[in-house]
Design a protein that fits this description.
By secondary structure, the chain is mostly helical. The longest helix is centred in the C-terminal third of the chain and has 26 residues. About 65% of the residues lie in helices and about 0% in strands. Helix 10 runs parallel beside helix 13.
């Protein structure tokens, strides 16, 4: 009776196509609702960033608007190209504004539908990775069952895990409000998929594209090279053979191809849009000093040392300059995110876990952290669950701490943002609680992870 009951449970799970259709309908309804809501309410559903993207696309499409001609050394003169950086606070690659050109000549909500479509692509990629590289190596799914029952079990589990991403309120609200994170998630998942497939050239090119879009995916290069090296010399120890391979031909080719893709894309944008592209897309973020409140506890240090309207950083004491320096956060942030990639990324099959740890560490110790940054690492959770051995109590505790520390911070931030109370110090204390709580969650997940063992390999059925 038990196998039949299990089979009946699996048969009640809808297929991946049904899940994608439900997810698509949900997103279309939310985009339509956003148009209705924004036309009737002062508090908009649409994210302010979407207006920035749309304005940047308009500036590209109409180069004579406010004299916003591209300022690159090789910008075409016969058919002028507009400058998206005429729009203040547009600090992204110009390729994003180009993708959203249909916002002007097709429909203002085109970008939202495009981001929602990327959500669906991400769901399909998660399902594909689960079916091809994760679930076939999960021992709990491979007892003494027939190949047909095994495939049915895998499909049911893969659909449920994919649903945790596609039906995650954080995911579908971010994309339908007009945030572009879904595009980056697509590039990152494609990089992961090609790496797991051992298509190293495609993975390197996608890594370069991801880093061009937003710089942080560059941290994945370390774990990719570590995995490539271990494929040839084994996954244990730090012997001389491994260290040689770490700087060997395959690793070097991967690094050069990914770096080359990044440089070619950046150079192309530079020759057209010039220094404004270089500064807004990259240099601004290296010296960003955001004194507005956000989850990161660094905001308070910057707030306390922020120059007055009449002063500059040169008038600050050395220790105050050190507190507000980007290197104050950059050193521990990169040490953890790059170090974990090198130490843990010894098997390509473990890369979803490694990238999760790297990204979680990067976000946790970033100088600026908002809610949309969480999607950078929650993207990998459906790929981790089959290999994490935690009790339901631990899962509940992790969820409660992860959400509770954010709620604690948001309750205090409300007093500052909407009531005007002077609660900077209390908000900073809650930022420290946020860091401690999320670090604990990361530690629990890492302790429950079961690494891949190569002799457990099982071929995907049929």
């Amino acid at each position: 009776m038990q196998p039949n009951a299990s089979a009946a449970w699996q048969d009640r799970i809808p297929g991946i196509r049904t899940l994608l259709v439900i997810s698509a309908v949900l997103r279309v309804v939310l985009v339509l609702y956003s148009e209705w809501h924004d036309a009737r309410s002062i508090v908009k559903y649409t994210d302010i960033d979407y207006r920035v993207f749309s304005d940047a696309a308009r500036f590209i499409l109409y180069p004579n608007l406010q004299g916003n001609i591209a300022k690159g050394p090789l910008a075409p003169r016969s058919f002028p190209v507009g400058d998206p950086y005429t729009r203040e606070t547009y600090r992204y690659t110009p390729l994003l504004a180009i993708l959203l050109l249909p916002n002007e000549w097709l429909h203002p909500s085109f970008g939202k539908y495009f981001f929602a479509a990327c959500d669906l692509i991400n769901g399909a990629l998660i399902y594909k990775i689960l079916m091809s590289h994760i679930l076939p190596h999960t021992k709990s799914l491979t007892p003494d069952v027939s190949a047909k029952n095994l495939e049915r079990s895998m499909r049911a589990h893969a659909t449920l895990l994919t649903a945790t991403h596609l039906l995650n309120p954080l995911v579908f609200t971010i994309s339908t409000r007009g945030s572009s994170e879904a595009i980056l998630c697509t590039f990152v998942l494609l990089t992961l998929f090609y790496t797991l497939e051992r298509r190293q050239s495609a993975a390197a090119m996608m890594l370069g594209l991801s880093a061009h879009w937003k710089i942080y995916p560059i941290i994945y290069g370390v774990s990719c090279i570590s995995a490539i090296t271990s494929q040839r010399v084994g996954a244990k120890g730090w012997d001389l053979a491994y260290l040689r391979r770490l700087f060997g031909r395959q690793a070097l080719c991967f690094a050069l191809l990914s770096a080359g893709t990044f440089v070619v894309l950046g150079a192309t944008c530079y020759v057209i849009w010039g220094y404004p592209f270089l500064y807004e897309a990259y240099l601004y973020h290296t010296d960003r000093r955001d004194h507005r409140h956000n989850f990161s506890p660094y905001f308070y240090l910057i707030y306390l040392t922020y120059p007055s309207s009449g002063g500059t950083s040169a008038h600050l004491s050395i220790w105050r300059q050190l507190l507000r320096s980007p290197f104050t956060s950059l050193i521990p942030q990169l040490t953890l995110s790059l170090g974990t990639g090198l130490l843990l990324g010894r098997l390509s099959a473990d890369l979803p876990f490694v990238w999760f740890v790297q990204t979680f560490s990067f976000v946790l110790f970033n100088r600026v952290c908002t809610s949309q940054y969480f999607i950078w690492y929650t993207l990998f959770i459906p790929l981790l669950v089959p290999r994490i051995n935690l009790s339901w109590k631990k899962w509940v505790m992790c969820g409660a701490v992860w959400m509770g520390t954010q709620a604690l911070w948001l309750a205090e931030a409300y007093k500052l943002e909407f009531l005007g109370d002077d609660v900077f110090f209390g908000l900073w204390v809650r930022s420290l609680v946020y860091v401690a709580g999320h670090a604990w969650v990361l530690g629990v997940i890492m302790s429950g992870y079961i690494p891949f063992v190569s002799n457990q390999h099982t071929q995907t059925p049929g």
